[in-house]
Amino acid sequence: MAPYESDDSTATRRRKAARYAVPVAVLGVAAGTIGLVPALADSGSPDLPKITAEQLIQKIAESDVQQLSGTVKITTDLGLPDLGGLDGALGSGATAPGGEGDGSAADPSAKLTELATGTHTLRVAADGPDRQKLSVLENAAEYSLIHNGDDVWGYDSASNEVFHGTAGESGKHAEQPAATPKDFAEQALKAVDDTTSVTVDGTAQVAGRDAYKLVIEPKQSGSTVGAISIAVDAKTGLPLKFTLTPASGGAAVVDAGFTRISYAEPAASTFDFTPPKGAKVTEESEAERPVSPQDEEDFAKGLDKGLEGLKVIGEGWNSVAVLETGGEGIPSGDEVGGDLGGFIGSLGDQVEGDFGTGTVFKTRLINALITDDGKVYVGAVTQDALVKAADTRK
Fold this sequence. Notes:
Blueprint: H1 8-28, H2 53-62, E1 67-76, H3 86-90, H4 108-111, E2 118-127, E3 131-137, E4 142-148, E5 151-156, E6 161-166, H5 181-189, E7 196-206, E8 209-218, E9 225-233, E10 239-246, E11 254-262, E12 280-283, H6 284-287, H7 293-308, E13 310-313, E14 320-324, H8 333-336, H9 338-347, E15 348-353, E16 356-362, E17 367-371, E18 375-379, H10 383-392
Parallel strand pairs: 6-12
Antiparallel strand pairs: 1-2, 1-11, 2-3, 3-4, 4-5, 5-6, 7-8, 8-9, 9-10, 10-11, 13-14, 14-18, 15-16, 16-17, 17-18
């Protein structure tokens, strides 16, 4: 978090923004926090004592699993467009945040975004809040992220590159939430309110563990979310399975889970790491442009200014965030021209209504309408719901 103090009005705006972000952050599911989310490996319906939804939610909240290891399989299908041809339009060559082009292939902030699409197999281990390890298994390579005390190591075997950062208060990785199944399920449960149906839908066996199935569904129409299903370990309360299905049907947007799990204490050596001989090591401070106090102050002012323009309309799963940028909308493909113009034109659908005209950018879960006069409407709602929201704001 940027080091600044907030007044009551700023705090209120942030709470409103957070209230909107609950369904979106939970349902958007990509990037870093997805890494340790579990699900799949479902077989059998064990005979377990009856339990209410409220009791099962409480069981999740009281779960205190500190040690585990296992294998996770995760499939994510957000329906994102293929970006493979974009390099030619924008120019190739990744650069570090400082703009020097020396970013590390092992930097977790970039590497873990690959989990946002496709199917991946992960190995995970945890021993309390200060030691975790996640390894992404690829065809002929492996990427590992290790947190051990104050150190965070990322290692990409394909490039033989190492990234070293810190987990202390001064390190950027201190700001990243702990990516555990329990954390993810708790975020999902924050979306539960009067617009939500929560039920226990029988039992299952996941990775050899008896589990209850908790189902969360929007009561309202207009949401892109069909249902969220969480399989909860009947003994420990740990979420073992997470599946999010869209209202449009078809394959799950996220289907992830343990295929193997053990609650035994992992060996201490699991979290040891020494850079291999010949590996290129990038320190966190080298990978980023140093942030001056003035930069931090400007960032805080910019964040507050942005939140001043953020409003939320609707409620529950039909919440739509509205940001009045005061600028112009997305340039058309004709205005940009060339390969980039064609790419931009292929991404969105042109729409019109009482609000005027604009472009809708869609995934299978999160949709955004950018009007030609610079207003932005975004939510886990259908295109029609976005247009209706924009019309009500006219």
